[in-house]
């Protein structure tokens, strides 16, 4: 061992050569290992990139009927925050809670001008427990006027409307919740319909209808009447009896006082501005939820009282939906096939009454009517062209 050290000391050049050779061997081994590892990593991430590209390609080319997205034609990319889908959602399906939905719908643009060519539309909002037995009559009413209306349907959760793909009612159901007659859940459904309709910035007027309602004038007449009106149509009147003031709860004082209490029909028509107030308002909705309990019915008192207190000058205090309460009781008269005659329909349209429209008096006070049974469909279709002019 000592001999070896002596040899190295006598020949230092040999020692340096051995050190250099050792370094080169280690370097080469390291390079080989690095290249092998790099190739493995490239193969792994290359395959992942191919999979990711395939998924993106598949997503971009499959139909987006359940997404509020737009395919950009130039690049085939999917734009899910495009102006088009923001202004007018293509699909009514969403996972928003009511609070999230109302918050979203309550947003009001501050710029007065629109960044698109806006054609004002009427939102027809149907509150129904299930099928729409008078659907063919409504389809006839809407035919040829696609640019001027939107449809929204609130049914019981899980129910699917059975309509053709060419029907204006196709895929127009909104996410719904259970509804019980005479409770605040009816107001919840009304607000839910309004909020979904407000997401379309072209909707200017909002009319609430049921499965038993019919239009008694043609679409151009209804559209011109509502779009041109300076007022909304919420029936609101003071009823001093047991079915009016008798339903007032002292627990509402002092926020709502007895002299402010009003009653009216559930079937309303609202401007966009008043619709935003309804989906944004929480104080008086909460009061009604707590204290307007059977035999107080929130759907008959909440909107009439609220508008009387805060927005009376924007309201006509009448409804545009005719109904027959002459029989008395908690529900109006229902008309079946045997009741439908040409004279009967004409009597609803021209009932001799006059009402105020803007600053003038008019004989057209009602645009819709209820309640009509499924058996009324045949006769109504028979008279639609000759009497109702559609």
From TrEMBL:
<keyword id="KW-0812">Transmembrane</keyword>
<keyword id="KW-1133">Transmembrane helix</keyword>
<dbReference type="InterPro" id="IPR003406">
    <property type="entry name" value="Glyco_trans_14"/>
</dbReference>
<keyword id="KW-0808">Transferase</keyword>
<dbReference type="Pfam" id="PF02485">
    <property type="entry name" value="Branch"/>
</dbReference>
<keyword id="KW-0325">Glycoprotein</keyword>
<keyword id="KW-0328">Glycosyltransferase</keyword>
<dbReference type="InterPro" id="IPR044174">
    <property type="entry name" value="BC10-like"/>
</dbReference>
<dbReference type="GO" id="GO:0016757">
    <property type="term" value="F:glycosyltransferase activity"/>
</dbReference>
<protein>
    <recommendedName>
        <fullName>Core-2/I-branching beta-1,6-N-acetylglucosaminyltransferase family protein</fullName>
    </recommendedName>
</protein>
<keyword id="KW-0472">Membrane</keyword>
<feature type="transmembrane region" description="Helical">
    <location>
        <begin position="20"/>
        <end position="41"/>
    </location>
</feature>
<dbReference type="GO" id="GO:0016020">
    <property type="term" value="C:membrane"/>
</dbReference>
